[in-house]
Design a protein that fits this description.
Helix 5 packs parallel to helix 9, helix 6 crosses helix 7 and helix 7 runs antiparallel to helix 9. The protein is about 65% helix and about 10% strand. By secondary structure, it is an alpha+beta fold. A hairpin with a 6-residue loop joins strand 2 and strand 3. It has 2 domains: about 190 residues, no CATH class; about 70 residues, Alpha-Beta Plaits (2-Layer Sandwich), CATH 3.30.70. The protein starts with a helix and ends in an 11-residue tail after the last strand.
């Protein structure tokens, strides 16, 4: 358990580092805005620096913006999730203040593409292990649990204000480059964070009671048990039928290998689920 928590914390810190690299090396210098509260902090920082001649760092603003949202996460999402979010925000703030602001490329398109790619990877890997980078991650995750839709859709919708501001404060082209960066960002997030995708598992086993108990100990999922008979062996078996999220597939495969390595398992993509399906695990 301790090793697992250390691993998760390490991944959260790596995600924070990637987020800071996306901002300081690609997006800030090109006036292309990031996704979520990182982009909001970047926007407000640029207003202070370019229009008010006040040097206010993006990292400090990001930390301040996240305080009320982290409280929301504590109340609505869970304590462990919020602790990881706080770690992510703290290290992102640290890395943003420590790393220099550079322009790796003079090409604004390359900055937008790689900034969105790296930023999306930072959010995706952090969400995948049960944490968040704070800010809109928490808001979008709450909405995603209610509606059970891809989380990237909410990122794109919540970033409309940032895109408009980019076009008003700077050249209209900056809004288009920001839109490009945010689109890439959301696609990468959805490619990595796959909790919303559903799978149907059909497991043929002779250890139905042990396997059913092991699955329920790890996953909160309903299981239908049907009688089955091997056509070749003529052995009496049972089929466990359940629907899971793609995010839970690794845990299910691990359970099956531990309880009944000889079980035959068929995993198929599920287009839609009607009826009760727990989404707030």
């Amino acid at each position: 358990m301790v090793l697992k928590e250390v691993k998760r914390t390490f991944i959260v810190i790596i995600g924070a580092l990637l987020n800071a690299i996306a901002l300081n090396f690609f997006l800030i210098g090109a006036n292309v805005y990031a996704s979520g509260f990182s982009g909001a902090a970047q926007l407000v920082s640029s207003i202070f620096n370019d229009f008010l001649n006040m040097n206010v760092g993006t990292g400090i603003l990001l930390f301040l913006f996240n305080i009320p949202v982290i409280i929301l996460g504590w109340l609505k999402v869970g304590r462990a999730f919020t602790v990881y979010s706080l770690v992510s925000v703290a290290f992102t703030t640290l890395f943003l203040e420590v790393l220099p602001v550079l322009q790796v490329s003079e090409d604004i398109i390359l900055n937008a593409v790689f900034g969105g790619l790296i930023g999306g990877a930072s959010v995706g890997i952090t969400l995948r292990i049960g944490g968040s980078t704070g800010g809109m991650d928490i808001i979008a995750l709450v909405l995603s649990r209610i509606k059970d839709r891809p989380i990237g859709i909410y990122f794109l919708a919540l970033n409309a204000l940032i895109i408009g501001a980019a076009g008003i404060l700077y050249e209209p082209e900056n809004a288009l480059y920001t839109l490009l960066s945010l689109y890439i960002n959301t696609r990468v997030i959805d490619a990595i964070h796959t909790r919303y995708q559903k799978l149907t598992a059909m497991i043929i086993t002779k250890e139905k009671d042990e396997l059913q108990q092991a699955i329920h100990d790890k996953l909160i999922r309903g299981i239908t048990i049907l009688p089955a008979k091997g056509a070749y062996s003529n052995e009496e078996k049972h089929m466990l039928y359940l629907v899971i999220t793609r995010y839970e597939l690794y845990d299910l495969e691990t359970i099956i290998r531990q309880v009944d390595p000889r079980a035959f398992t068929n995993i198929v993509q599920t287009t839609s689920v009607l009826g009760f399906f727990r989404r707030d695990e």
